[in-house]
Amino acid sequence: MLSNTPIILASKSPRRQELLNLMGLNFKVELKDVDESYPEGLSPAEIAVYISEQKAKAFHADGAIVITADTIVALNGEILGKPTDRAHAQEMLAKLSGSKHEVFTGVTLVKGEAMYSFYDRTAVYCKEVTSEEIDFYIDNYHPFDKAGSYGVQDWWGIVVVQHIEGSYTNVMGLPTEKLYSALLKII
Fold first, then answer.
1. Is residue 145 among the annotated active site residues?
2. Which among 125, 140, 175, 178 has most CB atoms closer than 10 A?
3. Is 42 helix (H, G, I), strand (E, B) or coil?
4. pTM more than 0.90
5. For the stretch 6-23, what's the b/e string if a residue is b when 16 or more beta carbons lie within 10 angstroms of its beta carbon?
6. Binning pLDDT at 50, 70 and 90, where does residue 62 land?
7. Annotated catalytic residue: which of 33, 62, 70, 120?
8. Residue 72 parent element (H or E)
């Protein structure tokens, strides 16, 4: 049903592209520069949706559905974005070691003048890791383009993540179950 619908994915994330491919969707990637700052006082879910909507507002695609998304990691009220450098990645991963955090992905769909946004939340539990393990991870997996400095689909997810509560694909950056249902509603 969705395979003939023109879709634009406004994301350079290879994980989001992989997920859309696995969903059997035909899409093209288009990128626009968008300010990803957000107003103070928003909850983690509101931040993810706000940034996703800012990305969506940069697009006007006749006839196509535009998908934008933003994923954030929240630990005890602190937002852990993408690391700025190695030391920042080490700091974030040390905070995640032995703790529970939450991953929020805001998704916005645009078709014509209509805009629909939603979010998903997943709790992620990590075992404790050593500073040597953190350095090994950074050296071998280069997590500088990932919120929270890790990818659930790589070594960190296989070795460090003990369990999750919620959508696995949400932690990858796109809650595909909710996305599929939302796409069916707007086509």
1. no
2. 175
3. coil
4. yes
5. ebbbbbebebbeebbeeb
6. confident
7. 70
8. strand 65-75
